[in-house]
Structures are given as C-alpha cells and as structure tokens.
Design brief:
This protein is an alpha+beta fold. It has a single domain, classed as Alpha-Beta Plaits. The chain contains 2 helices and 4 strands. The protein has a 4-stranded antiparallel β-sheet with strand order 2-3-1-4. Strand 2 and strand 3 form a beta hairpin. The protein is globular, with a radius of gyration of 11 Å. The two termini are about 15 Å apart.
Length: about 70
C-alpha cells in the first residue's frame, strides 16, 4: 500500500533526509520518501502491517525531530 502524509513541523531538510533513511530501514517498508519542500511523506509498505509501520515511522520522526508529526487525516 502506498500513501502520502503531511509532515507537520518538519523544520530541517537534513532531518527529513535522516527520517527518510531511517523509515526505509523499518521491516515491511518497500519505499519511503520525505519531501522537505512539500512537507510530505510518501510511504509504500506492507498492507497487513501498514498501521504498525506508520506508528514506527512516527517514532523515528519524533526521535530525529521531536516536534515533527505525521498527519494522517
């Protein structure tokens, strides 16, 4: 499943690149891209575990940039 999400409070392009690299390493992720300019995350991950993977991606983002949130709605 491939979905796009808004990244709220992403303040640093370098942090965005770090998030992208870390999210790609999560088991079940096929691909991920973070666009600092568009403030977007595109996540392509295993359908059966998508919600679990999304939660792990949020933990990764928060660890790199504490104020950054993945907006799901």
């Amino acid at each position: 499943m491939k979905k796009k999400f808004k990244l709220d409070e992403l303040d640093c392009a370098v942090c965005g690149a770090k998030m992208e690299d870390a999210i790609k390493k999560i088991p079940g992720v096929n691909d991920a891209s973070v666009s600092f300019l568009m403030q977007k995350l595109t996540l392509d991950a295993d359908d059966a575990r998508f919600e679990e993977i999304l939660k792990e991606a949020q933990r990764v983002c928060t660890k790199i940039e504490p104020d950054c949130k993945i907006v799901t709605a």
